[in-house]
Amino acid sequence: MSTSQAEFYTVPTLPPEAIADAALVFLSDHEKAGAYPPGSREDFQPSRSSAAPSIEVTAPFETDGDASNVLVPLLPTATADATPREVPSLLRFVDNTLMQSAPIHNRPRHAHDICSICFRQGVEQKIVSDNGRGSSMNVPAVTSTFLPLWPCGHWVHYRCLIWRATRTNAEKDKCPVCNIQLYQWEGITALTLATRTRIDMEDIVKVKSADLTPLAHSDEVEFATECATIDSLIHANFFAELANPSQFTDDSPNLIQVFYNVIDALERMEKPAARWLRYFTPLGRLLYGMFVAIKLQRYLVASHAKIQGTEGWVEFEEGAKTLQGKILDEVRKA
């Protein structure tokens, strides 16, 4: 690390990070508690510099030289082999497919139609609220959008649908009435929507199959452990990058390269392994990449605040915006 680089940084003390704080919140800018998300969101503006490399989650990677070179994936990304039917990912189903019927939301054909999940009658009423550990749904109703599922047309409350997606049963991705598959379930996408909608993921404690003796971990513990692993990789790779010559005039580190190195290390460790972070769709892969990028950003802000505004920081933020744009493009695919 050069003398000029050293002035930006201090040896960090990694603060404890709450489970909820580690979850994704980047898609929640226009969401109101209990309300169905709007049909459109503000796109990020194009990068101010055409030379700024984008963050593309296709790790593990090979790079030749600095991070502005072309990144070559060594493993294929998720393919149609994992999705035998034309079924959308959960996030695309919620933010795109269901929005096609927005003009009739809260306007069921029959005034006495009830939600197929909570069985509450009446528009904009829901009963979903629990602590993520199987507590009763018998709580006071609150406002939520009433909408028809696609393709079957059965009506549910938006928050009831998200609550169902956070459960651990095998039917969570199916209509509760006709059992047709609605979307492709994956942990990282369910976590994204659960965080945005302020609903806890259901947590299952692992038990031994022989005597049902509880093990020392659950879905929540696995998630926290994997988050700690990501934090450690970010810390190690950030300081490793500081030892490399800087490509910037202000001698700041290449944060894009730090991101790629962390993703590469996670792939080699066969992560994600935690159920709440797993993915198999292209959109899930992008969401996981954004999850890592957010954690890297929080680490830098908390432990190396002086890096904000440097050339390396600006390039990293541009890459994160590009990644978010790719997520929105994937959501809006026909």
UniProtKB/TrEMBL annotation:
* Protein keywords: Metal-binding, Zinc, Zinc-finger
UniProt cross-references to InterPro entries, sorted A to Z: Znf_RING, Znf_RING/FYVE/PHD
**SUPFAM superfamilies reported in the protein's UniProt record:** RING/U-box (SSF57850)
Molecular function GO terms recorded: zinc ion binding
Write the protein's name. RING-type domain-containing protein
Query: What broad taxonomic lineage does this protein's source fall under?
Result: Eukaryota, Fungi, Dikarya, Ascomycota, Pezizomycotina
Domain RING-type spans what residues? 115-179
Q: Which SMART domains match?
A: RING (SM00184)
